[in-house]
Fold this protein.
Amino acid sequence: MLKFNEKTYLENGKITYETRSEIERVADEVSKEGYKNIFFISVGGSIAIMWPIQEMLKQLTDIPVYVEQAAEVILTGHKQLTKDSIVIMASKSGDTKETVEAAMWCKEKGYPVVSLVGTPNTPLEKLSKWVIPNKALNGVEFEYMQLFMLVFRLLDNRDEFPRYVEFADQLKYLPQNLLEAKQKFELIADKIAKKYYNEPYNIWIGDGEMWGEVYLFSMCILEEMQWIRTKAVSSSEFFHGTLELVGKDIPVFIVKGEGIRRKIDERVENFCKKYTDKLVVIDTKDYELKGIDDEFRWILAPTISTTLLVDRLAHHYEKYTEHDLDTRRYYRQFEY
């Protein structure tokens, strides 16, 4: 596969899964101290993977769950955010400006923070009450794995996710399954990138557990890393504006998940089949999860889409645009 090391990938999966006991210890300590609600606070790619989890928790728990942009919440505050909340943050670098500022703000106010941090001895680590080390070199799916173990252990302790042990046990099979999904998608990714890399405008659509994935790929990959103009819209909002921009020559990408809101995705798909000749549907149901119960597929669907899009499709776009994924004009290039 293009720019991919299978051995390293599986090693990253292994070291991620090995943090399970540490994550469960943190979750148990949080549960013991008690909390009245959960706040996910981050920015960019990190907040993108929190939105799908919020959507899941809406359906699984009666505890209030909020997702807030770090730069906003420190300005506006939030009446539900108190010392009785638990704040969950994430930063691969550990020094994301807005996230660090929000962590400092939380610490000053006495709001307990648990963070997933990819780089040791960084500001976010020092500002957090609990730290979960994200040891994988890359792979958004590994961040998902850690968040899944954290939040579903919390729910298990509330008797709201009774099959947590089976779920966590089966997570160890996820990296191998995702590797096989990548292999299956490789030629598809090449064809998509070759056909659409030079389009002046693209529409990306998803909903529910897939919305964060659509946001992540369209903004953090295509816009930030490839300078490709995109419009990201949820399936539920598509029919209230964006549908008017669909035409025979407009590429439309639909990322279909496996939760209840899949029905909305299919409505969009049926519409787009009639009005564009450039429809691409990426369906997580097309990829097996061996050794994992079907009951858990809707939860794990974002890991399938991210392993296909952020890892495989991104590199194939890079191949055809000849624009290095690490090249930026502005992001982290100077103070702004």
The chain has two domains: 6-162, 174-321.
